[in-house]
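Subject: Interface between my chains keeps coming out wrong

I've been trying for a while to get a sensible model of this assembly. When I model each chain on its own everything looks fine, but I need the whole thing in one frame so I can look at the contacts. Pasting all components below, labels as-is. Any help appreciated, I'm running out of ideas.
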Amino acid sequence: MGIAERKEREKEERRNMIIDAAERVIFSNRIDTSTMDQIAEEAELSKGTLYLYFKSKTDLYLAIQDRGMSILADKLARVLGEKKKGIELLKRFGEVYFDYANQFPNYFNAEMFCRSHEFMEETTASELFQSTRDKRIEIVSFIIRGIQIGLQDGSIRKDIQPEELSLMLYASLNGMIQAYMLRKQVEKHDLFPEIRVSIDHIVQDFIRILLDGLKPENVTNGQNVHETQAISRA
Amino acid sequence: MGIAERKEREKEERRNMIIDAAERVIFSNRIDTSTMDQIAEEAELSKGTLYLYFKSKTDLYLAIQDRGMSILADKLARVLGEKKKGIELLKRFGEVYFDYANQFPNYFNAEMFCRSHEFMEETTASELFQSTRDKRIEIVSFIIRGIQIGLQDGSIRKDIQPEELSLMLYASLNGMIQAYMLRKQVEKHDLFPEIRVSIDHIVQDFIRILLDGLKPENVTNGQNVHETQAISRA
DNA sequence: TGTAAATTATGACCAACAGTCAATTATTGA
DNA sequence: TCAATAATTGACTGTTGGTCATAATTTACA
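Reply #2:
Try treating it as a single job with all components included. I did that and got this:
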């Protein structure tokens, strides 16, 4: 049955063409000012057809977010292959996430937009929602893996709980990057205007400070001085 | 001219009545499913009147966000009066922000929603946007003050740059609370489902870990061991 | 107190847009 | 060739944010 497969393939291609068109329209304007009619025209399809592939405008936007998540997951997967010390992997994860946000601000924005809508119902039902969710789990799993490696090679404090720390790293860095992107993208929308600080290295500095606290007591001094506090377990 | 003042007052009252009504409607549903007609009915006013006080639905929502920011700013201001050591103040700031989010999840959500819209244009023009902005500056200023106190009383590492660190604390904690609220509010929308970790103390743990890294070298051991890394300056 | 002017409020109305569906066209299988 | 199935269309609908001419109310002042 080659026909069924070909049709499957064509359907997938068309789906991607639609997402491409949607990106072109939305990224050169904004979601809220982009209409399904515009996207349909850009895709050279009728609006009705869009709804054969995506059940709502939000769903289509979720597909865009999903692409971004895939890119990020790929980048992180590659880092895991670098065979560095655990603490170094975490640093690289952070840098890669930051690079990703800079390289694909539109995808990062999509992620933020979709998240603010996750606080509401609606998105839940979609398969795409499930897909982005899976990718987020994948991403956090990479981080957990990095932490475990660090625990093994001794580059990370023993009292760290991998799952908990992975969420902390992801969530806090995400917050940092949000603030960074806001300042970077639209000067006037800056989350913290008038706080006169060069924002350029703030994310890197944050990563450094946060990870410093994860290192085991500095062994070059041969003494356990930094009084670590255990992370309370679940 | 007592009349002008009375009118001023009445206008302010009516404005607040509208925000009250909007909160009642929006908080018991969602922004995107709440209509201006519903809010008008709840406020016992015509829709046209709403537009005499707020120039758009978003503007009205900004007013709600603004209320939340005021509450938070007040709480933080009170902390500053506690006359604790700098590092303790920062810890209290973090706890208070977290408490605020738990106590007024609707306001926190409003903040998140409005922020995702800040990535787009539109909001900029509004006076209310300027107002929330001012309050954010106020909040960050409190944090800066706390850091400065910590630098003076020696409870915070000398190499810390207050402005930069204040942004880090605010932004990263905000990211943490976002993730927390998502998990807390809507189990199924959890940012990190399947990552089996009790989320209950994760924010507190995060605050502890992050702040630990800010303490100066543990003097009780009489030796500078923890190799601090200076935050690169602007 | 009476009335013109100014302020405030109303709700019918409009335009825009997400989403639908009966009708149409294209493709498949025999 | 043609019936059955699948894919596509675009006119249409319902909803809703926002507007504006009109009306009601209040103020200023003779």
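Reply #3:
Confirming on my end. The radius of gyration of chain B is 21 Å.
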